[in-house]
């Protein structure tokens, strides 16, 4: 990792937050990355996604196996992006400049930022639900404040949502080090609540569940295969946004070894464990209440002990706030800052993100089952091509070579200036593969087809940028690793 060459640096392309990582601030070790992935999995949204996959018609054990296959694919992708991000040492929107051009990088950055804004609002809303359940349980008279209101939110809903909104904004204002500390705390703490809830539900279910149970009607052989593939790829699509901008965190790690170790602990180990315990709770709920889709907050409200309800609600709220700050606030803060680094800092980007998260009315998005399914497909449609293009460009076209100084330079002869700051090969590949992926994602009444938007988008984007680069003149300007090493 190295600082940009001052003589070549354009002040309109850099600020303190977008500058390359130094040895002093490379503080995210394996444990921190492990907790990062833990935090990403431990939320009401992740639970809802996991148990929602039962609705596609697979049995309990088939759903677990399909999600595990998706977890393995996510693990492989995280190593590709994580190693690249650590070696280059810059946040995602700056990393993308080497592929899309110093100005063209704003296209994938803002696409990722848009996705994160929606998820930020959704996760804040889900955390608010946990807090509301806690308040009503302690003060039953407040139940009257959960009715009425405006724009789809009750008076109590607005009060709690905005309170959490302010708390998260305050956390981000202290920078990335406090984000690391929040992740280290929020990731592990939710296991307490999940284990306790699982034990309570197993007791209610007489300590037996049917792993052959399913939420929908039995499937034929071909339909089972289609559903299995859909669930696996939807697992990747669910994490497609954090996967693409993983460089925001990987760049702060001291070594690629730390990256790989943190990824191994946090994804195949922890993600699988969370999926397993989520489906145990869901299958217990199916047996006890006849409904596999009840979320943890609803299940906790069935417990007789007020003390347990309060503790559980607090744990779920903390976990949801944790994932929000780490995965859905950091990314758009960097992405929006990248549009005008001279005028928009990381903190200002966070404020803009927070405001937009209210404007999109996230409770209306989450309140529609169809919207959730197609939104996940839409995430894959947007992020799949970006992932494929970034990986192929870094590993095959640039052969892992990056001139750090040129990421911050507007010189016409700069490596990443291309055509007026835009790489036509990468942008064309994104446009074509993005359109195809979106069309697939929006196929009506076909969840199995929608689930293929991420792999098709990623594959098509990768192939197109590989084919279009020599045609549009990119290859001769890609520095070799040897040249980059000599520069450093």
UniProtKB/TrEMBL annotation:
Its record classes its membrane topology as:
Multi-pass membrane protein
What subcellular compartments does it reside in?
Membrane
UniProt keyword terms in alphabetical order = Membrane, Transmembrane, Transmembrane helix
Q: Name one Pfam family in it.
A: Transp_cyt_pur
Provide the leader sequence positions: none
Record's GO cellular component terms? plasma membrane
Q: Which superkingdom?
A: Bacteria
Q: What is this protein called?
A: Permease for cytosine/purines uracil thiamine allantoin
Q: Which family does it belong to?
A: Belongs to the purine-cytosine permease (2.A.39) family.
Species the sequence originates in = Tsukamurella paurometabola (strain ATCC 8368 / DSM 20162 / CCUG 35730 / CIP 100753 / JCM 10117 / KCTC 9821 / NBRC 16120 / NCIMB 702349 / NCTC 13040)
Q: What is its main location?
A: membrane
């Amino acid at each position: 990792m190295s600082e940009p060459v001052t003589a070549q640096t354009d002040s309109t392309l850099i600020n303190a937050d977008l500058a390359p990582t130094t040895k002093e601030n490379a503080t995210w070790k394996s444990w921190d990355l492990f907790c990062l992935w833990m935090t990403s999995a431990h939320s009401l949204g992740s639970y809802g996604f996991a148990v929602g996959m039962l609705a596609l018609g697979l049995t309990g054990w088939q759903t677990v196996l399909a999600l595990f296959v998706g977890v393995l694919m996510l693990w492989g992708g995280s190593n590709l992006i994580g190693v690249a991000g650590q070696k280059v040492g810059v946040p995602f929107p700056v990393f993308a400049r080497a592929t899309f051009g110093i100005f063209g990088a704003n296209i994938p950055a803002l696409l990722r930022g848009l996705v994160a804004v929606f998820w930020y609002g959704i996760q804040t809303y889900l955390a608010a639900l946990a807090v509301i359940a806690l308040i009503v349980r302690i003060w039953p008279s407040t139940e009257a404040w959960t009715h009425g209101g405006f724009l789809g939110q009750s008076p109590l809903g607005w009060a709690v949502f905005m309170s959490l909104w302010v708390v998260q904004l305050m956390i981000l204002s202290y920078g990335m080090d406090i984000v690391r500390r929040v992740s280290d705390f929020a990731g592990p703490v939710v296991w307490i609540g999940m284990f306790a809830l699982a034990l309570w539900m197993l007791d209610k279910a007489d300590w037996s569940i049917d792993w052959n149970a399913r939420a929908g009607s039995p499937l034929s052989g071909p339909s089972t295969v289609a559903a299995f593939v859909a669930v696996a790829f939807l697992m990747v699509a669910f994490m497609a946004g954090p996967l693409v901008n993983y460089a925001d965190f990987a760049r702060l790690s001291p070594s690629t070894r730390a990256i790989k170790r943190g990824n191994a602990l946090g994804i195949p180990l922890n993600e699988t464990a969370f999926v397993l315990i989520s489906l145990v709770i869901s299958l217990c709920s199916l047996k006890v209440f006849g409904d596999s889709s009840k979320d943890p907050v609803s299940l906790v409200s069935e417990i007789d002990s007020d003390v347990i309800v309060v503790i559980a609600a607090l744990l779920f709220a903390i976990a949801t706030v944790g994932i929000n700050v780490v995965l859905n606030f950091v990314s758009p803060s960097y992405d929006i800052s990248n549009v005008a680094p001279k005028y928009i800092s990381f903190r200002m980007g966070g404020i803009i993100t927070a405001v937009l998260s209210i404007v999109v009315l996230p409770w209306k998005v989450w309140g529609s089952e169809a919207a959730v399914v197609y939104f996940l497909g839409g995430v894959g449609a947007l992020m799949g091509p970006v992932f494929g293009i970034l990986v192929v460009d870094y590993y095959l076209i640039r052969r892992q070579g990056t001139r750090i100084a040129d990421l911050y330079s507007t010189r016409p002869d700069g490596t990443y200036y291309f055509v007026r700051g835009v790489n036509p090969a990468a942008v064309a590949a994104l446009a074509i593969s993005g359109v195809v992926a979106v069309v697939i994602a929006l196929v009506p009444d076909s969840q199995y087809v929608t689930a293929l938007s991420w792999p098709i988008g990623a594959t098509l984007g990768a192939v197109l940028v590989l084919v279009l680069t020599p045609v549009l003149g990119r290859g001769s300007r890609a520095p070799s690793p040897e040249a980059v090493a000599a520069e450093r």
